[in-house]
Design a protein that fits this description.
With 437 residues, the protein is of the alpha/beta class. It has helices at residues 10-18, 26-36, 51-64, 83-96, 114-122, 131-139, 156-161, 165-172, 190-199, 230-241, 253-265, 279-290, 301-304, 324-331, 352-362, and strands spanning 41-44, 76-79, 104-107, 126-129, 150-153, 180-185, 204-207, 218-224, 246-249, 270-273, 296-299, 314-317, 341-347, 367-369. One of its GO terms (biological process) is response to temperature stimulus.
C-alpha cells in the first residue's frame, strides 16, 4: 500500500513525499481510513511505529475539506503528557500541513504564556497541549474549546500514569458532546479500556503490536555490576565500542545531572534533560544530541517521553525503572523503522528484583554479558543464554519465575518560546503522582 491509496490530498501527499515517505506504517495504514471515515478510534501502538502521522495526516485532510462555515475557534485539540511530545506532535502538524492554510499552536508549561496567548487570540485551527498549561489558559479565558470537532488523547496510558485523569475530565467537560475522539496508547490496559468506554462512542479498535512487545530489532543485554562501578563501565562501553549517540536513562533528575557531569569529565560530550531544566535548555540539548554535537543524552523517563530520533543506535538503562512497563518505553527509542538497535542495562544487586519483574513482563530472560574487571560474580559468563538454560545469579537472589509479581501503580520540537534557568518540576493540577521531569 502507498500513501496515495489512502485518500489524502495532493498538498498533504507532497509534504509526505518531501519527508522521504511513500509507504505507510501498519498503524498509519489502519488508522487513517478510520479517522477519515469519521469514526472514534482506540489505537494501541508501540513507540516508533509512526502513530503521530497516523492521526495528524487524516486530521489535516478533514480540516482541509472545503466548508461553508467560517472557523475562528480551534477545531482540533490534541492532549499529550509531556512538553517534548507536544512539541513533536505540533512539529508533525506543521511539517505535513505546510501547503495547507491551517494554523497550529503548541501549549505547554515551563515557558511564558504571552506568546501562546497571542497565537490563540490570532486564531488557530489546531491546539497541541499539555493538560496543566491548557487549563491555565482556560482560567485566563484566552482559549475557547466550544468548537472542537476532533479530540485526540495521545499516549493515554502515560496520561493516567502521571495522574492527569482529573485534568482530562475538566477539559472534556469544556468540549462539545458531539465530536470525533481518538485515543492512542502503548497498551490496552484495563484502565485504558475504562477511559475509552467513558469518552469514546462505538470506537473502532486497532492494535498493531502485542501488549508489552519489545521491538524485534532491539538487541537487549544486561551487565551485572557493582553500583560504584557503573559510571566507569558505561565510559568503557562507550569508548571501546565507539558509541557516538547514546540515550541514557536514570531514575532521578539529580542522578541525570551527576552522570552527565561525570561523563563530561571523562571526555564524553554529554548533557542532561529533565523537568528542572528550562524548556530552552531541553530543546537545545535535544537538538545538539540529534546533530551529534553531544554523544550522550542523560534523561529521566518523563523528559524522554516524546523524544523521536531516527536511527538511534543505543539506549542504556543506567538505572532500571521502578515500573517494568517503563523499560518497554525506554528501549523503544531504538530499533525503529526497521533499523537495528541495542539496549543495555547496568544492573547492581539492589536492582535484581526490578530485573526479574522486567523479565516476567517480557516472559523471557535477558542475555547477560560481562566485561573483564567489572564482574560481580565469577559464575556469570559473558555468553548468550542457551534455550532452557537457567541463569545463575549471585547467592540470595531468587531465579527468574520463582516469585509473586509485585503490585505496582497503574500504569521534534518547535516550542512557542523558551526561557533560561530552572523551572519548577510540577504543574498546578488535581492529579495524583503527577511529575514533570
Amino acid at each position: 500500500m502507498q500513501f496515495t491509496d489512502l485518500g489524502l490530498s495532493a498538498d498533504i501527499l507532497r509534504a509526505v513525499s518531501e519527508q522521504g515517505y511513500d509507504k505507510p506504517t501498519p498503524i498509519q495504514a489502519h488508522a487513517i481510513p478510520v479517522v477519515l471515515g469519521g469514526h472514534d478510534l482506540m489505537a494501541a501502538a508501540q513507540t516508533g511505529t509512526g502513530k503521530t502521522a497516523g492521526f495528524t495526516l487524516p486530521v489535516l485532510q478533514l480540516l482541509s475539506t472545503p466548508s461553508t462555515a467560517a472557523h475562528t475557534k480551534p477545531r482540533v485539540l490534541v492532549l499529550t503528557p509531556t512538553r517534548e511530545l507536544a512539541a513533536q506532535v505540533e512539529d508533525s502538524v506543521r511539517t505535513y500541513g505546510k501547503y495547507l492554510p491551517l494554523k497550529s499552536v503548541v501549549i505547554y508549561g515551563g515557558v511564558g504564556m504571552a506568546p501562546q496567548t497571542k497565537a490563540l487570540r490570532s486564531g488557530v485551527d489546531i491546539i497541541v497541549a499539555t493538560p496543566g498549561r491548557l487549563l491555565d489558559h482556560v482560567g485566563e479565558r484566552t482559549v475557547d474549546l466550544s468548537s472542537v470537532e476532533i479530540f485526540i488523547l495521545d499516549e493515554a496510558d502515560r496520561m493516567l500514569d502521571m495522574g492527569f485523569i482529573h485534568d482530562i475530565r475538566r477539559i472534556v467537560a469544556l468540549l462539545p458532546k458531539k465530536k470525533q475522539t481518538l485515543m492512542f496508547s502503548a497498551t490496552f490496559s484495563d484502565e485504558i479500556r475504562v477511559l475509552a468506554s467513558t469518552y469514546l462512542h462505538n470506537p473502532q479498535q486497532i492494535e498493531v503490536a502485542r501488549r508489552n512487545a519489545t521491538a524485534d530489532m532491539v538487541m537487549q543485554n544486561v551487565y551485572l555490576v557493582d553500583k560504584a562501578k557503573k559510571r566507569d563501565l558505561l565510559v568503557k562501553l562507550i569508548e571501546d565500542n565507539g558509541w557516538h549517540q547514546v540515550l541514557v536513562f536514570t531514575r532521578t533528575k539529580h542522578g541525570a545531572n551527576a552522570l552527565a557531569e561525570k561523563l563530561g569529565k571523562a571526555g564524553i560530550r554529554s548533557s542532561a534533560i529533565h523537568g528542572n531544566k528550562s524548556q530552552g535548555a531541553r530543546t537545545r540539548a535535544l537538538a545538539d544530541f540529534k546533530s551529534l554535537k553531544l554523544h550522550v543524552l542523560v534523561a529521566t523517563d518523563i523528559a524522554a517521553r516524546g523524544i523521536d530520533i531516527d536511527l538511534l543506535p543505543h539506549v542504556v538503562n543506567y538505572e532500571l525503572p521502578n515500573v517494568p512497563e517503563d523499560y518497554i518505553h525506554r528501549i523503544g527509542r531504538t530499533g525503529r523503522a526497521g533499523s537495528a538497535g541495542q539496549a543495555v542495562s547496568l544492573v547492581c544487586v539492589d536492582e535484581h528484583k526490578l530485573l526479574r519483574e522486567i523479565e516476567h513482563l517480557l516472559k523471557r530472560e535477558i542475555e547477560v554479558k560481562a566485561v573483564a574487571g567489572f564482574e560481580v560474580d565469577p559464575r556469570i559468563k559473558a555468553q548468550p543464554i542457551e534455550s532452557g538454560q537457567r541463569r545463575q545469579l549471585p547467592r540470595g537472589t531468587a531465579p527468574f519465575g520463582q516469585r509473586k509479581p509485585q503490585q505496582s501503580a497503574p500504569q521534534s520540537a518547535k516550542p512557542a518560546s523558551s526561557t533560561s534557568g530552572q523551572t519548577p518540576n510540577t504543574e498546578r493540577g488535581t492529579g495524583t503522582r503527577r511529575r514533570f521531569s
